[in-house]
Amino acid sequence: MDERSYYSRRLSADELSVWVGLQVPDIPAVDRTVTQKCIEMEESMFFVSHLGDEMVGTSSIFRDKTRMCLLLSGLRITSALRGQLTKHVIRNSLPFFKSVAIREADAVVNRNLTEEDIPFPLVPDVGGWAEDGLIENGFKEKGTFYRVVYSVPDSAPETIHTWDEIPASFESLKSFYWKIPLEERPDHGSLWHGIILAGANNTLHTASDKSDPYLAMGAFHWKTSLVVAAAMFDPSVVSAQDVAAMICHIAHQSGLSSIVLDMMPSDSSIVNAMEQICGVSKWKTELLLYRKRL
Q1: Predicted structure pTM score
Q2: Which of the chain's termini has less CB crowding within 10 Å, N or C?
Q3: Residue 291 included in any domain
Q4: To the nearest whole percent, how much of the chain has pLDDT over 90?
């Protein structure tokens, strides 16, 4: 370790410029507008790390209150110091012990992460260089997911389902989440990160039967793509084919050319349905879910 003293501190909501001030050329850019909304959310905590007087790292975590989980949603460290500091930056971003409200922590690793990828905080990737630091902090690989990219079809298939004019409340979405069959229920912190963040940015979409939601999607526009950062649905009410059609309708109406589905399991029914509508995916990126029991 460098002989200079290392320390980190939490940032307030008006210190976004500090967090984005660290220039790391091999990591995706930061969407400042969405990040400002993110740092203002009560579920988010942003940190900055220093070695002496030099800022060497930034990180952020998201508190998933529904699943009592933390998500390491952002990690940026000066490339020359990653071998020395990654484990320390991660450790100082997480609680030291389990609490009633938080029982585990998640991280999503993208080993192929580059500066050309989707910007923070639309998706919560950390680079493959962070794996050793995660493992040293007690994280274990939990599963493999995929980010899948499709071309928007010339026309979207019809569906009897429509999006709500006003999105369902977060409280009703939490109740809906626990009603989803276990095999269809997304079990990772990235889900609620995408839902809550989309709500803060007015890009949350829900579909409901009266006051009961059965579909929720957190989505963002990035360049010419619709990035579906989070999606959950009740298969007893709406089919995966209808969900895929509704996603395509939004992308088509917005004049976008691509659809990005994030954190899709290998056996995702939505992915299968999208391939029937859009054809074979243009691109697929492997994402590794790491988890630590606190």
Answers
A1: 0.94
A2: N
A3: no
A4: 86
